[in-house]
Amino acid sequence: MNVHNKQTINAPVSQVWTIIAEEFATAYKWMSGVVHSYEINHGLKGETPVAGRVCNLENHDNPFHAVENILRYDEAARTLVFEVIPVKERGPQLPIVKNKVTIRLTSTADGNTLIHWHSQVTLKLVGKLLYPILKLGLYKAFANILLDLKVFVETGYPSQRKVNSDKKLHAIAP
Fold first, then answer.
1. pLDDT-based confidence at 42, cuts 50/70/90?
2. Where are the strands (E) in the chain, listed by range?
3. Which of 1, 38, 55, 132 is most buried by its number of CB atoms within 10 A?
């Protein structure tokens, strides 16, 4: 399944690149649904500021999380490619095997940033059966990630959606 999104961010490409690529491991600062994120040190380390990250999506021991490995880091072309592998050890399993994300930044005529998001999602059988609903849900989820990023880059603060998400996730801690 392929999902495409675009978002204009009122900031220069260099500023957006810093947050999404150079500070890749700190997604918890701006991304809704991410309780905490931290650097992993295997993979392309040395060729990139970080090799990848783990994003915890629940607030308890052994949380549902995503392991995100950087596959390509091209600062000159302002292109970042990473693979997202969801890890859920309890509860209903996810219909997704993995998600390969390509983010490309381009500068607009007025000096702002157009961010292009392409996801190539590999589905389990149940995901294939739920394809139309899943595609719509993923499109919305990825669009919300870009809106969270837009607010954070433009204001320096997390979006209201991120603030509300954190309150909800921290309230359910054991």
1. low
2. 2-9, 36-40, 52-56, 65-74, 79-87, 96-107, 113-123
3. 55
